[in-house]
């Protein structure tokens, strides 16, 4: 079993950003509109054109209400009681573009916002809010042919159960029974599960749009649970990859190859993951260099030339981060890999931190590079 060193662990477990700016514009523009992730018919939470978020919680008997933003609820906005007995408040500054988890603290208790949809993160179902992004078109729902995201249950002898995965098949998959496809195995981060890349990440819409634009050749994406959430946040120094590696390599991949029309060889197989999923990606690829030819670490650490064994035949290493993380680390790591003759690409998402807008953009950049 491979152990992770403290330096890499620190990078992978960088604190999830609260994404609230430190300085305020002089005037908050009062053009607030309901978040696109609200429950049907709910007016709050709201966002404005500057990226501020405004919350309203009905809790007339409460003494204190605060909205906590980000993975694990770090940071937050204290709400004030208004005349109708509800509590309202606006973030101190604009938030980063894209998706954010949050929950509501009422008199010390943790609750979800009844006005917002819920998404699995922080090892629980959290409320979600979407800050419109200047580049949101690449993951928007458009009038283009759409693929399918199918839930499957695959047998796992090593865990003595059936396990769940989601499989994205591209538009037209059902029309040509002779066509076979490459596969990307795409992993979520700590606190999340196999629903994250479709729900928070909009991976299927990113793929649909890229295919419609003629920017990629279609491939499958497989998303499964990384068996990580029994580990406390920050307590991964001795994380054992072996159980999940067995599930992925020895059970899930054979099931996918047997039940979907895949090109079942290393050169048509990729693996990538965000944050802790990146850590898992690195560990598995170093342990099993004969399984995948394309590697992607999205805010999930780096490779060094010494990590790549001679004869491993790695076709691409993709390294990314937000500009508010450690962008120089991925840039310098990619440069060192290229100097050693290993094809590597770095990508930095401008204006974002350890959050889903970084990873949406990363997948959008990674997908056209795969299976070339």
From TrEMBL:
Cross-referenced InterPro entries: AB_hydrolase_fold, Esterase-like, Ig-like_fold, Ig_E-set, Mycobacterial_A85_antigen
Gene3D superfamilies reported in the protein's UniProt record: alpha/beta hydrolase, Immunoglobulins
Recorded superkingdom: Bacteria
GO molecular function, one term: acyltransferase activity, transferring groups other than amino-acyl groups
Pfam families the UniProt entry points to: Esterase
Keywords, alphabetical: Signal
Signal peptide limits: 1-21
Name of the protein in question: Esterase
Organism: Flagellimonas oceani
